Amino acid sequence: MASDYQPKSDRKGIALCLSGGGFRASLFHLGSLRRLNEVGLLSQVNTITSVSGGSITNALLAKHWLRFIGDKIFANFADFENDLRQFCARDIRTGPLIWERLDPRNWASLISDDHSATDLLAQQYEDHLVPKLTLGDTAVKNGPKFIFCASNLQTGVSFEQSFNRIGDYQIGYAQVPEMRLSDAVAASSAFPIAFPPLILKFEPDKFHGGKIPEPELRRQLSRRIALTDGGVYDNLGLEPVWKTHKTVLCSDGGKPFSIASDPGEMITSRLLRSQEVIGSQALALRKRWLVSSFEMNVYGGSYWGTGTEIEGYPKHDRGYSGDVLEALRQVRTDLNVFKPGEQLVLMNHGWALTDAAIKSYCAELVPEPLPSGTPPDSRLLDDSVAALQALRDSK
User: Are 306 and 21 in contact (CB under 8 A)?
Assistant: First the structure.
């Protein structure tokens, strides 16, 4: 709401936003987090918001946070890195969409109005990513607040999920710390073309402060909530932080819009292409607004994304350009197996762009001289032929 907007003098803290984009985003963000940790900035972040593939990274980061060793730079960051890479080497898409739907043991729940293939996706996260963890478990003393963003199909706005509240400004907010973290990630990553909404049921009296004036309508909407991918409303994860934080860092692992000489004439292809255009213009507006806010000094920070040319930063060193950058722009947005080479090139890309963004726009937040750090794979960062070979089958 407008009343939540804070003037620059009242803004506090550093926010890190991790966009959607399937495993490609998860891995791109992993490279970014590595560089943020190397310069001691990750430990300073007050809020980490995430969408879809970014929520996969964010949830595992929350799990590892209490295990990190070190005050400013986490010495055992590699443990988190290895766990996320192992998870992104799995196919968590095909089972929920095909094989588990064909399993007779799941038919009773799948024909229910309250269950769908997205519940099966949530179980993948429960079994292999964040088992037995709840939103309440992400409350870390002296650590960041972890926020997982979904989209509420009923109210049409961003739906926040964190240890101290879930909800949106239309229906209000409730404290549900016992909610499974795996459900929050599934709601955030339920890409609508592949996965139906995740249905969550709550006691309506739990929700307070909603903007909807009719109490009975608010109760009805909060009793049974239909959530889909957070990227449907805000693929950058900016909504929870842009009004209040002093510094906003935005890591965008989404797939850039691609020009198509033949968008198709069949009704399905026309509708899908039109949806892409609508989503692209909405995302472009958010990016322009974000950059404009930086330029007008509304808040500090920086943006970096998979389609970003490293030469666009005033200060930069190694990074991808030319054919490798174009190949990175085409990497699929999916939740299936990413091979080691693909993973490392995406991580390199996130690492190098984050390094350039920090040097160019966030020097006041980090030590001088800036720690050099180590890219995930120096050979794949310096050898464009090897990088292209690693991305050969990524489309």
Answer: yes
CA-to-CA dists, residue 74 to 61, 66, 128, angstroms: 12, 11, 24
H helical segments located in 44-151: 53-65, 77-88, 94, 100-102, 107-110, 117-128
Q: Is cis: bond before 369, omega within 30 of 0?
A: yes
Using DSSP bridges, classify how beta strands 172-174 and 247-252 pair: parallel, antiparallel or unpaired.
unpaired
204: amino acid identity, one letter: P
User: In the predicted model, what is the mean pLDDT of residues 184-201?
Assistant: 92
Cα–Cα distance list, 189 to 56, 169, 182, 388 (Å): 8, 21, 11, 28
As given in the structure block, the two tokens for residue 319 are 């990074």
What's the Cα-to-Cα distance from 127 to each of 87, 171, 272, rounded to whole Å? 11, 31, 33
Q: What is the pTM of this model?
A: 0.93
Residues contacting residue 330 through CB under 8 Å, at least 6 positions apart: 255, 258, 394, 395
What is the reported pLDDT for 116?
76
Assigned token pair, 294: 């930086």
Adjacent-strand bridge partners of 18: 50, 251
Residue 277 has a pLDDT of: 63
pLDDT tier at 115 (50, 70, 90 boundaries)? confident
Provide the b/e sequence for 55-79 (b: ≥16 CB within 10 Å): bbbbbbbbbbbeebeeeebbeebee
In sequence order, the 6+-apart residues with CB closer than 8 A to the CB of 200 are 179, 183, 187, 224, 225, 227
273 has a pLDDT exceeding 50: yes
Round to whole Å and give the CA distance between 51 and 17: 8
In tens, the pLDDT along 304-345 reads 999 999 999 999 999 999 999 999 999 999 999 999 999 999
Q: Find out whether 130 and 88 touch, Cβ atoms under 8 Å.
A: no
Model pLDDT for residues 52-109, shown as the tens digit of each residue: 999 999 999 999 999 999 989 999 999 999 999 999 999 998 877 665 665 676 656 6
Which tokens go with 86? 């192992």
185 in Cβ contact with 212 (< 8 Å)? no
